[in-house]
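RECORD TYPE: protein structure
NAME: NIF system FeS cluster assembly NifU C-terminal domain-containing protein
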Amino acid sequence: MSAESLERRTRNYLQSNVPQIQDHGGHFEIEDVDEEAGEITVAIGGACSGCGIAPMTMKAIRERLPDHVSDIETVNVRRTSGPRAAVMPDKTEEMEEMDEYTDYSPPF
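PREDICTED:
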């Protein structure tokens, strides 16, 4: 398995199954691929930087990507900062742990 193949399959999955990122003015970037470890790092940005449901999107990507793209064991997702960043980056982890996000299943 090559890093290029893993990146391509990840990009295809995100474009097809998480179109809300781009539909709502956000974007994603695959920052790192470690094919030997089965680990991939995805950054979401643009409008996602300040979006209140970005933690749910990040959680969904972390949990669902390994189920849909073979050879992926670990998914790291981070939010990039930018001019639209309305949510303080240090609050993201706290938000992901909130009960409201625990059982929420985004529609993608």
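COMMENT: Confidence is low (pLDDT under 50) at residues 83-89.
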